[in-house]
Model the fold of this input.
Amino acid sequence: MAEIVLKDIVKRFGDLVAVNNLSLNIKEKEFLVLLGPSGCGKTTTLRCISGLETPDEGKILIDGEDVTTRRASRRDIAFVFQLYALYPQLTAYGNIAFPLLTQRTDKKKIKEEVNKVAEILKIKHILNKKPKELSGGDMQKVALGRAIVRRPKAFLLDEPIGTLDAKFREEMRTELKKLHVDIGATTVYVTHDQVEAMSMGDSIAIMNLGVLQQVGTPYEIYTNPKNLFVANFIGSPGMNFINCKPERDSSGRLVLRILSINTHIQISDRIQKIILDKKEEEKELVLGVRPEDVVLSMKKEENYIETKVFVVETTGSYNIVNIKLGSDIIRVRTLPTVAPKVGETVYIGIDMKRISIFNKKDGNSIM
Amino acid sequence: MADIKLISLTKTFGDITAVDSMNLEIKDKEFFILLGPTGAGKTTTLRLVAGLEKPDKGEVHLDKVCVNNLSPAVRDVAFVFQYYTLYPNYTVRQNLEFPLRSNLRKLSTSEIDKRVTEVSKVLHIEHLMDRETVNLSGGEMQRVAIGRAIVRTPKVFLMDEPLSNLDAKLREEMRAELARLHLDLGSTFFYVTHDQIEAMTMGDRVAVLNEGKILQIGTSDEIYNLPKDVFVAKFVGSPLINLFDATIDKDTLIIDRKAMVCNIFEKQCSLLKNYNKKNLILGIRPEDIEVSREKQKDNSFKSTVYFKQSMGVEDILNLKINSIIFKAIVSPKLQTKVGETFYANINIDRSHLFDTETNKRI
Done:
């Protein structure tokens, strides 16, 4: 098992900077997710780690050893692709055994190893089947088996479950996480799906336009996003954003004026201090609040905002009440029993202990 | 506006029965959702209603009239596809006007103008009207595609996964927009998806479809809280429902070779009398397992955290007892760690029991 270090990696394709000065430490046994929209440079980063691409600048160290220019086959890393590239003429057994055959392992040992892997992946019953007889999920398990059987230093996975049905993807998320817990290998996993990233990663590195935006545990990234991009990308239903501007109320207290409806809300002393310390008093700001941190009330309370219900969505385990603030939709997560009528007047309060505030111009958090 | 009625509708392609004697009644003004995995027969059903496919058996009724022999053009339904098929060299306005210029309609220019303007307001695309569609984002294109369907004021809207090509954020916003649009238009929506969250959040009623057969029809609340069989229980809800092998022994429920033994209430005992000693499947949703540090009075079982999925708003704990692993939802405030011991408290009142042989709810 291995530690992987990326130092100031740059990779260009013509005029396009696919990866721009990326530094990242991936600890031994860590499950790191590279997350971002298509074109953000996450797959290119993975290909640089594997040796399928050579970076234009920077260094890649595996277990302290500089492997930047070493060939892919000599890095002892296993790569699993989105589209399971299995040998169609071989059985599942043959596919999993293949990397060992090329290493000239003896037959008895191969059988032992393949069976061990099949046990972990719970695919013993399909070992005699050929890929075309298998479902998408089983094929992906065989592809994983072929990667595991070599016992490589690290696993690189590129959207391995991206092509599966939504429901099956959910099962595979748990299976993959469990697999990582059981074999404990360093894993770098690429996806554009924030739910996958949150549910599987020990840590998440979010990229956009080739630039690393934030690295942290899922909880850190969720509760303390560094900028608007991260805040917007993580969480479902997504974070609410409210444009506002600091101003003084009649008593001289610093408050936030909500621009779309021209009312102000009071903020805590702590947040007043942050805005003043960071010299953001004159700037346009964006107040970010998660749907579970907005409180819905049927009667007016202090510092609550009057609005009307736009539409209510039920999911079974919770409801999402959509309300309108000017032309913006604000989502409130409630218990499944809370279901106000469309058009009904309600009041919303914001849990000021759990908000984020961003500078509108550069998008960075001021917290 | 109209109701839709399908009477033992069947469609086969070679050996495959895509739709298997389906009976369905969709009420006027209802937002009805057909939910199922890939290959369940959802799209075929929609195409049969539109008239793009001919059924082998059975009837399609629109507004109480059998339309089996009517061509798609005169059925007066609007179809919105997964891949928004807009005319690329036309502006948004021209795309919206197009269906109104059909010879079937004979509308005056001022009437066309009026309708197009109304629709553009409903969908918030007034500012895009003179742009060519190639210069629009995915969400904007899908709005225009929906607009082109609305502008005709058809009897019913047929929608085939219209949101599945949008990115996650936009899909979320469009869900609320579509649900509201349905209320504002007051027309019948027949909507097909494989995404259970879309079905749950938008539909007045949902039908769960698998292998051409409808397994259950109900409100999202009924489907979630009273699933009729194991397939429905698994297909709806995220994280996935926990399923255990179980047997009943008088007033106790034995879960997975005595990993857990639950007491059951008297009123349930009498209901389950006929199932004594039989093999059953027990389903419990992750939010119906409460997790505590201290042992509680009833049905409280010692377990260890095998691994944890941190979703931000909640943590999904994967708990282990003997060889079984199951999920429970806890608040991040509990600050659980892998390897720690907790008590899993099974809310037996909220559990679902299914017959192992038939997979049906007991």
Observations:
- Chain B touches chain A through 46 residues (CB under 8 Å).
- The mean pLDDT of chain B is 91.
- The first strand of chain B starts at residue 4 and ends at 13.
